[in-house]
Specification:
The protein has four helices and no strands. With 81 residues, it is mostly helical.
Length: 81
């Protein structure tokens, strides 16, 4: 439960800072991210990680997994424009 509270706090701070700077806030479901990066909404996590590495011309999948997840969200937002 402590991790959930930390994530909620971080999300709140992020939303506050975005609002203070009049920046848009976007949110995606896991299926939307998977669809955007792999073309398949039920892709496995590793497939998404491979897609992130491929799209960014990286030799390796970003570590830790949270970094790859963050890049996947950023790429999804980029592709939505």
């Amino acid at each position: 439960m402590a991790n959930t509270i930390l994530v909620a706090q971080a999300r709140g701070v992020l939303m506050l800072v975005l609002a203070q700077h009049n920046l848009p806030y976007v949110e995606f479901t896991p299926a939307q991210i998977k669809q955007a990066l792999t073309g398949y909404g039920n892709a496995e996590k590793f497939q998404v990680q491979e897609a992130v590495a491929r799209e960014l011309n990286l030799e390796e999948i970003p570590k830790p997994d949270d970094a790859a997840d963050a890049l996947a969200v950023a790429l999804t937002a980029l592709y939505q424009e």
